[in-house]
Task: structure prediction
Amino acid sequence: MNIKEIIAIRSMPARAGTSIAALVLIVVVSIGALIPVQATWMLGLETLVFALVALAFAADATVRLVQDARESAAAGQRRP
Result:
């Protein structure tokens, strides 16, 4: 597949964004854990905030997948 085919599928960019957000979450939380004089509650707060951002990407991708499936079903198309 090339990039044009991926972008043509409505839900694919959102799914890619979700994957990237999850990877960034792992890196950011890991870097935050390496800060030596940071309070434990601060690390927890940082983790929560970045996890909510990643959750927003996942929720958006889910909504797009459901909408795409409904539109395909309404058009009588069957997804492989």
About this structure: The mean pLDDT is 85. The first helix runs from residue 3 to 8.
